[in-house]
Amino acid sequence: MKRIFAISVAVLMSFGMLAQNQPVKTYLIKSGHVKYKMGGNAQGTHEIWWDNYGDWKREEKNVTTTAKMLGIKSETKEHTVVISKGKLVWTADLEKNTGTKGINPMYDMVQAQMGDMSEEEQEEMSLGILSGLGGEKEVGKDEVMGYECDVIKAMGVKTWTYKNVPLKTESKMLGIKSSEIATDFDPNASVSASKFEPLSNIDYKLSDPSMAEEFEAALNNPDGVGAAKKIIPLSYPFEKFKAKMNAFNPEGYQRMGPMKLMGIYTCGWQKSENDMMTVAVYSTENAQEDEDGNKLDFEEMSKAPGVDVFTRYGQTCYYFVDPEPEESQEPNTMLMIHYKSQKMMVMVMKKPDVSKASLLEFYDKVAL
Question: Fewer CB within 10 Å, N- or C-terminus of the chain?
Protein backbone atom coordinates (compact mmCIF):
# COMPACT_ATOMS: atom_id res chain seq x y z
CA MET A 1 0.00 0.00 0.00
CA LYS A 2 2.83 2.40 0.79
CA ARG A 3 3.93 1.93 -2.81
CA ILE A 4 0.59 3.34 -4.04
CA PHE A 5 1.11 6.44 -1.91
CA ALA A 6 4.74 6.74 -3.03
CA ILE A 7 3.84 6.43 -6.71
CA SER A 8 1.00 8.97 -6.38
CA VAL A 9 3.34 11.51 -4.79
CA ALA A 10 6.05 10.73 -7.33
CA VAL A 11 3.64 11.39 -10.19
CA LEU A 12 2.80 14.82 -8.76
CA MET A 13 6.44 15.67 -8.09
CA SER A 14 7.57 14.42 -11.51
CA PHE A 15 5.66 17.26 -13.15
CA GLY A 16 8.55 19.44 -11.99
CA MET A 17 10.56 17.89 -14.80
CA LEU A 18 8.11 19.29 -17.33
CA ALA A 19 8.98 22.94 -16.84
CA GLN A 20 8.19 25.56 -19.47
CA ASN A 21 10.88 27.07 -21.67
CA GLN A 22 11.15 30.38 -19.80
CA PRO A 23 12.51 30.72 -16.25
CA VAL A 24 10.41 32.34 -13.56
CA LYS A 25 10.76 36.13 -13.47
CA THR A 26 12.39 37.31 -10.24
CA TYR A 27 12.02 40.91 -11.40
CA LEU A 28 9.45 42.32 -13.83
CA ILE A 29 12.21 44.30 -15.60
CA LYS A 30 14.41 42.40 -18.04
CA SER A 31 17.76 43.85 -16.98
CA GLY A 32 19.21 46.62 -14.87
CA HIS A 33 21.36 47.80 -11.99
CA VAL A 34 20.56 49.12 -8.51
CA LYS A 35 22.92 50.40 -5.82
CA TYR A 36 21.95 50.84 -2.18
CA LYS A 37 23.37 52.74 0.76
CA MET A 38 23.14 50.64 3.93
CA GLY A 39 22.41 52.17 7.33
CA GLY A 40 21.67 51.28 10.94
CA ASN A 41 23.91 48.69 12.55
CA ALA A 42 25.18 47.73 9.08
CA GLN A 43 27.03 50.44 7.16
CA GLY A 44 28.22 50.08 3.57
CA THR A 45 27.01 49.47 0.03
CA HIS A 46 25.02 46.79 -1.76
CA GLU A 47 24.71 46.46 -5.56
CA ILE A 48 22.72 44.20 -7.86
CA TRP A 49 23.08 43.71 -11.63
CA TRP A 50 20.65 41.40 -13.42
CA ASP A 51 19.54 40.12 -16.82
CA ASN A 52 16.84 37.80 -18.15
CA TYR A 53 14.44 39.06 -15.46
CA GLY A 54 16.80 38.06 -12.65
CA ASP A 55 17.65 34.55 -13.83
CA TRP A 56 21.20 35.91 -14.19
CA LYS A 57 22.29 38.06 -11.26
CA ARG A 58 25.40 39.53 -9.66
CA GLU A 59 25.11 40.78 -6.10
CA GLU A 60 27.94 42.55 -4.27
CA LYS A 61 27.95 43.62 -0.61
CA ASN A 62 30.65 45.62 1.15
CA VAL A 63 29.43 46.22 4.69
CA THR A 64 30.57 46.60 8.28
CA THR A 65 28.13 45.44 10.96
CA THR A 66 28.39 46.66 14.54
CA ALA A 67 26.62 44.86 17.39
CA LYS A 68 26.63 45.17 21.17
CA MET A 69 25.73 42.24 23.41
CA LEU A 70 26.19 42.07 27.20
CA GLY A 71 28.13 45.30 27.06
CA ILE A 72 30.60 43.92 24.54
CA LYS A 73 30.87 45.67 21.18
CA SER A 74 31.76 43.63 18.11
CA GLU A 75 32.42 44.58 14.49
CA THR A 76 32.14 42.30 11.48
CA LYS A 77 33.30 43.13 7.97
CA GLU A 78 31.75 41.49 4.92
CA HIS A 79 32.72 41.86 1.29
CA THR A 80 31.06 39.26 -0.91
CA VAL A 81 30.19 38.77 -4.56
CA VAL A 82 27.45 36.26 -5.39
CA ILE A 83 26.85 35.34 -9.03
CA SER A 84 23.92 33.20 -10.10
CA LYS A 85 23.14 31.90 -13.60
CA GLY A 86 20.05 29.75 -13.52
CA LYS A 87 20.65 27.07 -10.88
CA LEU A 88 24.42 27.69 -10.75
CA VAL A 89 25.79 29.84 -7.90
CA TRP A 90 29.31 31.17 -7.22
CA THR A 91 30.00 32.90 -3.88
CA ALA A 92 33.24 34.80 -3.29
CA ASP A 93 34.43 36.10 0.09
CA LEU A 94 36.78 38.94 -0.75
CA GLU A 95 37.78 39.41 2.90
CA LYS A 96 39.22 35.88 2.95
CA ASN A 97 39.90 35.59 -0.80
CA THR A 98 38.02 32.29 -0.94
CA GLY A 99 35.02 31.05 -2.88
CA THR A 100 32.47 28.26 -3.24
CA LYS A 101 30.36 27.07 -6.15
CA GLY A 102 27.31 24.87 -6.29
CA ILE A 103 23.67 24.31 -7.18
CA ASN A 104 20.82 26.39 -5.83
CA PRO A 105 18.68 23.63 -4.22
CA MET A 106 15.47 25.67 -4.57
CA TYR A 107 15.83 26.59 -8.25
CA ASP A 108 14.26 23.51 -9.87
CA MET A 109 11.44 23.43 -7.33
CA VAL A 110 10.54 27.08 -7.98
CA GLN A 111 10.67 26.53 -11.75
CA ALA A 112 8.50 23.44 -11.40
CA GLN A 113 5.90 25.16 -9.25
CA MET A 114 5.75 28.51 -11.03
CA GLY A 115 7.24 28.02 -14.50
CA ASP A 116 3.88 27.68 -16.27
CA MET A 117 2.10 30.43 -14.32
CA SER A 118 1.13 33.80 -15.71
CA GLU A 119 2.43 36.87 -13.87
CA GLU A 120 -1.04 37.27 -12.33
CA GLU A 121 -1.02 33.67 -11.04
CA GLN A 122 2.51 34.08 -9.64
CA GLU A 123 1.36 37.23 -7.85
CA GLU A 124 -1.64 35.41 -6.40
CA MET A 125 0.55 32.60 -5.12
CA SER A 126 3.08 35.05 -3.62
CA LEU A 127 0.30 36.90 -1.81
CA GLY A 128 -0.95 33.59 -0.39
CA ILE A 129 2.51 32.77 0.96
CA LEU A 130 2.90 36.31 2.33
CA SER A 131 -0.44 36.06 4.10
CA GLY A 132 0.60 32.72 5.61
CA LEU A 133 3.63 34.48 7.13
CA GLY A 134 1.37 37.08 8.69
CA GLY A 135 2.45 39.71 6.19
CA GLU A 136 0.64 42.10 3.90
CA LYS A 137 1.15 44.01 0.64
CA GLU A 138 -0.05 47.54 -0.05
CA VAL A 139 -0.14 48.25 -3.78
CA GLY A 140 1.11 51.65 -5.03
CA LYS A 141 1.36 52.94 -1.47
CA ASP A 142 4.51 55.05 -1.58
CA GLU A 143 7.23 56.50 -3.82
CA VAL A 144 10.99 55.93 -3.78
CA MET A 145 13.21 57.88 -6.21
CA GLY A 146 10.04 58.93 -8.06
CA TYR A 147 8.91 55.32 -8.66
CA GLU A 148 5.51 54.22 -7.34
CA CYS A 149 6.22 51.27 -5.05
CA ASP A 150 4.29 48.45 -3.43
CA VAL A 151 4.98 48.18 0.30
CA ILE A 152 5.45 44.68 1.72
CA LYS A 153 5.52 44.00 5.46
CA ALA A 154 6.44 40.63 6.96
CA MET A 155 8.34 39.26 9.96
CA GLY A 156 9.81 42.59 11.07
CA VAL A 157 10.89 43.64 7.58
CA LYS A 158 9.32 46.42 5.48
CA THR A 159 10.23 46.59 1.80
CA TRP A 160 9.34 49.07 -0.95
CA THR A 161 9.42 47.37 -4.38
CA TYR A 162 9.06 48.63 -7.96
CA LYS A 163 8.20 45.80 -10.37
CA ASN A 164 9.58 43.34 -7.77
CA VAL A 165 12.89 45.25 -7.48
CA PRO A 166 13.47 46.39 -3.85
CA LEU A 167 14.27 50.11 -3.68
CA LYS A 168 14.12 50.51 0.08
CA THR A 169 14.19 48.09 3.04
CA GLU A 170 13.92 48.60 6.79
CA SER A 171 14.21 45.88 9.42
CA LYS A 172 14.61 45.37 13.13
CA MET A 173 15.38 41.87 14.35
CA LEU A 174 16.99 40.72 17.60
CA GLY A 175 17.69 44.34 18.50
CA ILE A 176 19.62 44.97 15.29
CA LYS A 177 18.34 47.75 13.05
CA SER A 178 19.26 47.91 9.38
CA SER A 179 18.15 49.78 6.31
CA GLU A 180 18.89 49.93 2.60
CA ILE A 181 17.83 52.68 0.25
CA ALA A 182 18.60 52.90 -3.46
CA THR A 183 20.93 55.72 -4.45
CA ASP A 184 21.27 54.64 -8.10
CA PHE A 185 18.63 52.78 -10.10
CA ASP A 186 18.90 52.08 -13.82
CA PRO A 187 15.98 49.88 -14.98
CA ASN A 188 16.36 48.23 -18.39
CA ALA A 189 20.07 49.05 -18.50
CA SER A 190 22.09 46.75 -20.75
CA VAL A 191 24.39 44.64 -18.56
CA SER A 192 27.50 43.02 -20.05
CA ALA A 193 27.59 39.21 -19.93
CA SER A 194 31.03 39.51 -18.29
CA LYS A 195 29.31 40.79 -15.14
CA PHE A 196 27.91 37.29 -14.63
CA GLU A 197 31.21 35.42 -14.94
CA PRO A 198 32.86 34.02 -11.78
CA LEU A 199 35.76 36.15 -10.50
CA SER A 200 39.00 35.09 -12.19
CA ASN A 201 41.14 35.66 -9.07
CA ILE A 202 39.09 33.32 -6.87
CA ASP A 203 39.63 29.57 -6.65
CA TYR A 204 36.07 28.32 -6.19
CA LYS A 205 35.59 25.02 -4.35
CA LEU A 206 32.45 22.90 -4.63
CA SER A 207 30.26 23.46 -1.57
CA ASP A 208 29.12 19.83 -1.90
CA PRO A 209 31.62 17.55 -3.68
CA SER A 210 28.89 14.96 -4.29
CA MET A 211 27.20 17.46 -6.64
CA ALA A 212 30.22 17.70 -8.98
CA GLU A 213 28.56 15.78 -11.81
CA GLU A 214 25.31 17.75 -11.61
CA PHE A 215 27.22 21.04 -11.45
CA GLU A 216 29.23 20.22 -14.58
CA ALA A 217 26.09 19.08 -16.41
CA ALA A 218 24.33 22.35 -15.59
CA LEU A 219 27.44 24.33 -16.55
CA ASN A 220 27.48 22.66 -19.97
CA ASN A 221 23.74 23.11 -20.45
CA PRO A 222 22.87 26.64 -19.25
CA ASP A 223 19.51 26.46 -21.02
CA GLY A 224 18.57 23.18 -19.34
CA VAL A 225 15.47 24.68 -17.76
CA GLY A 226 13.76 24.52 -21.12
CA ALA A 227 15.08 21.17 -22.29
CA ALA A 228 12.31 19.11 -20.76
CA LYS A 229 9.03 18.06 -22.24
CA LYS A 230 6.08 20.45 -22.03
CA ILE A 231 3.19 19.78 -19.67
CA ILE A 232 -0.04 18.55 -21.26
CA PRO A 233 -2.68 20.93 -19.88
CA LEU A 234 -5.86 19.83 -18.18
CA SER A 235 -8.96 19.92 -20.36
CA TYR A 236 -10.96 21.14 -17.35
CA PRO A 237 -10.81 24.98 -17.35
CA PHE A 238 -8.87 26.54 -14.48
CA GLU A 239 -11.41 29.37 -14.19
CA LYS A 240 -14.15 26.80 -13.56
CA PHE A 241 -12.00 25.07 -10.91
CA LYS A 242 -11.25 28.46 -9.36
CA ALA A 243 -14.95 29.37 -9.13
CA LYS A 244 -15.77 26.02 -7.48
CA MET A 245 -13.03 26.39 -4.87
CA ASN A 246 -13.75 30.06 -4.13
CA ALA A 247 -17.40 29.20 -3.45
CA PHE A 248 -16.40 26.95 -0.53
CA ASN A 249 -15.74 29.04 2.59
CA PRO A 250 -15.86 26.90 5.76
CA GLU A 251 -16.00 29.01 8.92
CA GLY A 252 -12.67 29.44 10.72
CA TYR A 253 -10.55 28.20 7.80
CA GLN A 254 -8.08 30.20 5.71
CA ARG A 255 -8.12 29.33 2.02
CA MET A 256 -4.77 28.88 0.24
CA GLY A 257 -5.33 29.16 -3.49
CA PRO A 258 -6.77 28.23 -5.87
CA MET A 259 -3.45 27.93 -7.69
CA LYS A 260 -2.12 26.38 -10.87
CA LEU A 261 1.25 24.76 -10.18
CA MET A 262 3.23 22.94 -12.90
CA GLY A 263 0.01 21.95 -14.64
CA ILE A 264 -1.73 20.91 -11.41
CA TYR A 265 -4.73 22.76 -9.98
CA THR A 266 -4.68 22.90 -6.21
CA CYS A 267 -6.51 24.53 -3.32
CA GLY A 268 -6.31 24.14 0.45
CA TRP A 269 -8.17 25.24 3.56
CA GLN A 270 -6.40 25.40 6.91
CA LYS A 271 -7.56 26.14 10.45
CA SER A 272 -4.43 24.90 12.21
CA GLU A 273 -1.42 22.65 11.60
CA ASN A 274 -3.58 19.61 12.36
CA ASP A 275 -6.83 20.74 10.73
CA MET A 276 -6.72 21.14 6.96
CA MET A 277 -8.29 20.04 3.67
CA THR A 278 -6.71 19.84 0.21
CA VAL A 279 -7.85 19.23 -3.37
CA ALA A 280 -5.42 18.63 -6.25
CA VAL A 281 -6.28 17.94 -9.90
CA TYR A 282 -3.86 16.76 -12.59
CA SER A 283 -3.91 15.33 -16.09
CA THR A 284 -3.29 11.59 -16.19
CA GLU A 285 -1.48 12.14 -19.51
CA ASN A 286 1.39 13.69 -17.57
CA ALA A 287 1.91 10.67 -15.33
CA GLN A 288 5.60 9.72 -15.47
CA GLU A 289 7.59 6.85 -14.04
CA ASP A 290 9.39 7.33 -10.75
CA GLU A 291 13.07 6.47 -10.20
CA ASP A 292 12.21 2.76 -9.81
CA GLY A 293 10.24 2.68 -13.05
CA ASN A 294 6.86 2.56 -11.28
CA LYS A 295 3.92 4.30 -12.87
CA LEU A 296 0.51 5.22 -11.51
CA ASP A 297 -1.49 2.18 -12.60
CA PHE A 298 -5.27 2.24 -12.14
CA GLU A 299 -5.64 -1.54 -12.47
CA GLU A 300 -2.97 -2.05 -9.83
CA MET A 301 -4.72 0.43 -7.53
CA SER A 302 -8.05 -1.45 -7.81
CA LYS A 303 -6.39 -4.74 -6.85
CA ALA A 304 -4.24 -3.47 -3.98
CA PRO A 305 -5.20 -4.91 -0.55
CA GLY A 306 -7.30 -2.58 1.58
CA VAL A 307 -8.27 -0.25 -1.26
CA ASP A 308 -11.96 0.55 -1.42
CA VAL A 309 -13.05 0.95 -5.06
CA PHE A 310 -16.51 2.35 -5.72
CA THR A 311 -18.47 4.56 -8.13
CA ARG A 312 -19.60 8.08 -7.26
CA TYR A 313 -20.19 11.20 -9.35
CA GLY A 314 -20.38 8.74 -12.25
CA GLN A 315 -16.64 8.12 -11.87
CA THR A 316 -14.40 5.40 -10.43
CA CYS A 317 -13.20 6.34 -6.95
CA TYR A 318 -10.38 4.91 -4.82
CA TYR A 319 -10.14 5.31 -1.04
CA PHE A 320 -6.72 4.49 0.40
CA VAL A 321 -5.59 4.03 3.99
CA ASP A 322 -1.88 3.74 4.73
CA PRO A 323 -1.62 0.64 6.97
CA GLU A 324 1.81 1.64 8.27
CA PRO A 325 1.67 5.28 9.41
CA GLU A 326 4.62 6.89 11.15
CA GLU A 327 4.79 6.15 14.86
CA SER A 328 2.30 8.13 17.00
CA GLN A 329 0.67 9.66 13.90
CA GLU A 330 -2.78 9.25 12.41
CA PRO A 331 -2.89 7.00 9.31
CA ASN A 332 -2.53 8.72 5.96
CA THR A 333 -5.63 8.54 3.80
CA MET A 334 -6.47 9.69 0.31
CA LEU A 335 -9.53 9.80 -1.91
CA MET A 336 -8.86 9.69 -5.66
CA ILE A 337 -11.55 10.26 -8.30
CA HIS A 338 -10.65 9.23 -11.84
CA TYR A 339 -12.46 11.29 -14.50
CA LYS A 340 -11.55 8.95 -17.32
CA SER A 341 -13.23 10.81 -20.23
CA GLN A 342 -11.47 14.04 -19.23
CA LYS A 343 -8.17 12.26 -18.57
CA MET A 344 -7.83 13.76 -15.13
CA MET A 345 -7.45 12.62 -11.54
CA VAL A 346 -8.69 14.45 -8.44
CA MET A 347 -6.88 13.82 -5.15
CA VAL A 348 -8.63 14.72 -1.89
CA MET A 349 -6.91 14.79 1.52
CA LYS A 350 -8.12 15.92 4.93
CA LYS A 351 -7.23 15.81 8.61
CA PRO A 352 -7.84 15.22 11.49
CA ASP A 353 -10.95 13.27 10.40
CA VAL A 354 -9.52 11.07 7.66
CA SER A 355 -12.44 8.69 7.27
CA LYS A 356 -13.99 7.85 3.93
CA ALA A 357 -17.29 9.50 4.94
CA SER A 358 -15.49 12.71 5.93
CA LEU A 359 -13.52 12.88 2.67
CA LEU A 360 -16.67 12.30 0.61
CA GLU A 361 -18.60 14.91 2.60
CA PHE A 362 -15.81 17.42 1.92
CA TYR A 363 -15.56 16.63 -1.79
CA ASP A 364 -19.37 16.78 -2.19
CA LYS A 365 -19.06 20.50 -1.42
CA VAL A 366 -16.41 21.22 -4.08
CA ALA A 367 -17.02 18.42 -6.62
CA LEU A 368 -16.01 19.25 -10.21
Answer: N
